[in-house]
Design goal:
Largest interface: A-B, 22 and 22 residues
CATH topology of the largest domain in chain A: Rossmann fold
Strand content of chain A: 5-15%
CATH class of the largest domain in chain A: Alpha Beta
Number of domains of chain A: 2
Distance between the termini of chain A: 14 Å
Helix content of chain A: 40-55%
Number of helices of chain A: 12
Shape of chain A: globular
Oligomer: homodimer
Number of strands of chain A: 5
Strand order of the largest sheet of chain A: 2-1-3-4-5
CATH architecture of the largest domain in chain A: 3-Layer(aba) Sandwich
């Protein structure tokens, strides 16, 4: 990013799942420990992958108007209930299903996430722009020490990314033109949607997000304004 | 507040102007120093009072639908422009008017505000529920060290308090029933509106909010769930 563009940026908005938090590793670690206490024999990595595979289709049904606005917690819950029989979880009580479903509130950051965000917060307004709902993101921030200035959950806009209402809604609430807002993500598609609306873009590859066999988003697929190896490197690049 | 009710509360939402920040004292101190540098001779306390007197009527025009949704920054700006000739500010350039208008982004907290919020944040989700817009509240939080978990500005809901959409909208984004959310304010009317919708209520008197001649909200006018002398005393009362 050239210096002139960089000087204009006032706020950074972040994708969270994958970009800042290790959803797959956290989910497996959290639920393996919990399941072991209960003597459950579950293939947690396979559940993580199957649950995540249901994520985009469930949001797309909302995006296409096939179901009314539904917050991500409730989409996650419906997907979990559908998967439960296949993974030996059909007999869980409602409170246990709630606990499993809320694993998304307890995800842990990559090692560079928290130190990088603290540095960036000193110079910029920082906020998530996530498909998670506000309460999920607030709980995640407390669990993982993410020092947000404010939280843009999808339920603020009642739209899921990549709907334009999310990116532009965040800019509007920040009282900033899109050119002064930098979208940070580990997903090329998220950045392409943001760039099309005039936002600045920063790519941080997370080649382990989907585990050892990841095949997508291994590298920048366009000339994003910044490409950085970590949130701390992003802070370096932005002089924070 | 009895112990059972207290144990149910998960989130605290705060009025900001007056309750947490000393808008009148901050405005006078900030603009007096700025004006002195420029040789301006302005009765800043009188401007503060006149500006604040325009606040409720300007929001009520939006609330009654007489003008479309307008964020507080823009209501403040229109009021300031109307007052400028009377206070010797008619010749200010646009950039200077912007600086004056943004004094609301630079308000300072009462002495107990920041230490009390840090304590409460350890145990509860904490957020402002303010008629300020998100960008105003984010800037205020940075200027005054208010460690919010998230920020509920009126522009999230496109409604001003005491419209029910604000209180209920905050509960919805928190994924909590109203009975688990505690509204904290220095204004009896704000708490009455919150209570009517099922929220819990805490009153913190701020008898100097309007300066030495204040006549309103000097004391609790109902049996609010908590009455505390400061944010720190509120933290004491809630075991935080």
């Amino acid at each position: 990013m050239d210096a002139v563009v960089m000087q204009e940026v006032r706020a950074l908005i972040f994708d969270t799942f994958g970009t800042l938090v290790d959803w797959r590793g956290s989910l497996v670690a959290d639920l393996s420990a919990w399941g072991a206490q209960r003597g459950l024999n579950v293939d947690w990595p396979a559940l993580a992958d199957a649950w995540r595979a249901a994520y985009r289709p469930s949001m797309d049904r909302v995006r296409r108007g096939e179901r009314p606005w539904t917050r991500l917690d409730d989409l996650h819950r419906a997907s979990l209930e559908a998967l439960a029989p296949r993974f030996g979880l059909a007999n869980l009580e409602q409170a246990d299903l709630d606990h499993v479903n809320h694993v998304w509130h307890r995800l842990q950051g990559w090692p560079d996430t928290t130190p990088g965000l603290y540095r960036l917060k000193r110079r910029f307004v920082i906020a998530p722009l996530s498909n998670g709902n506000v309460s999920l993101l607030v709980d995640m921030a407390k669990a993982s020490d993410l020092p947000w200035d404010t939280v843009f959950g999808s339920d603020v806009f009642r739209h899921y990314k990549p709907d334009p209402e999310t990116y532009l809604g965040a800019c509007d609430l920040l009282s900033l033109p899109a050119s002064r807002v930098l979208m940070v993500a580990a997903h090329n598609g998220d950045l392409a949607a943001a760039r099309a609306l005039g936002l600045r873009t920063a790519f941080i590859p997370r080649p382990q997000e989907h585990g050892p066999g990841q095949t997508t988003d291994l590298r920048a697929e366009s000339d994003w304004d910044v490409v950085a190896g970590s949130v701390e490197e992003l802070a370096d690049r932005l002089g924070a």
